[in-house]
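[agent] plan:
  1. take the single chain provided in the ticket
  2. run structure prediction with default settings
  3. attach structure tokens to the ticket
  4. add a short note for the reviewer (M.T.)
[agent] executing step 1
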Amino acid sequence: MSAASRDDVLEGPISSKAFQYADLNIRHSGNSEKTLSLVKRAIRMGYDCVAINIDVGDISVTDEMNRLNLSELDASASTEEPPTKKKKRGKKNLTESLNRIPSPFLVDESQLDLSGFEKSGKRFRQYSRLTFTLSDPDILTQIFISKHTKSFDLIAVRPANEAILTSISKKSDLIDIITYQQADNKISWFGKKKIMQVCQTEGICFELAYASALTDRVDRQRVFSNGRQLIYTLKKKGIVFTSQAESLIDLRAPIDAMNMLQLWEVGSDDARQFISGYPKQLLQRAESKRTLRGIVHSTPIVEDRQNGEITAKVPSKNLKESAALKRLLSVKHFKLQVEAAPPKEKQGDEHMEE
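[agent] step 2 finished; step 3 output follows
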């Protein structure tokens, strides 16, 4: 999709009047026609906001890469090469992982039937989302300053362990969604109630997805079990309910999704928040972060050409030494220190006379 059309999708604040139901996890696996059909079905079902999700798996340096690096380092040590090679190798592997991240994908809106939204005064919104597993907390910041991740509207992370979750809680401005493999037998950080609530307080949403519960009986039991624990820990707040749909049979209409939440003991009033209220808060937070990144603060420098002085609130390379010293002497404590310190030349002369 072109940059111009993408800006049209994201322009303007998210108003409560125009926003009703959201599915923030429509999976895109590379087949644009399949993704387009999923979005068309979501619109017919009543969703007016979707996120096209690209899941790249574990973005961290893998154990196999680490073993390879260690063997190379042992070989380099025998030839007395500098130890800086270790960092370079790790950085190279991370760069290669980031380079494998595809560009965000949005469907062509000209192929969608949006007449229903126009009649009701609503607007269809679509966002790009990137999801990945993170198993190395040391590379968290490096990932999010990468141009590959900055191009996505929403960032979702699957923490591999408690250490990753703790790092996320301290760098909450980098993450929008915390998710997990919905049908995993055990989520290692689920018992860390305080850390999860810190992330929730910082505005990060947790994800509960239902697609895995629609087919396999064992997976269904695990999805329900994990979901109950998540909902209990977060007290039914800050959770987005998504489809994680990869095929048409994975999608459910908004009313069906809200009814499904009753299986997790979520009442009808709270259920609406899971597919409307909390997604809205999440998207507003994501848009505000994107806006703040573009703010530039500048301080003017005023030059008095007659007196040859420059007045500025920030240091200037054009400021003369005499003017800079005069400004420093206006500080009371600095002036007292200058007056109290004897000149070095006089000290030297007195020492010679003795």
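[agent] step 4 note for reviewer: The longest strand covers residues 49-58.
[agent] ticket updated
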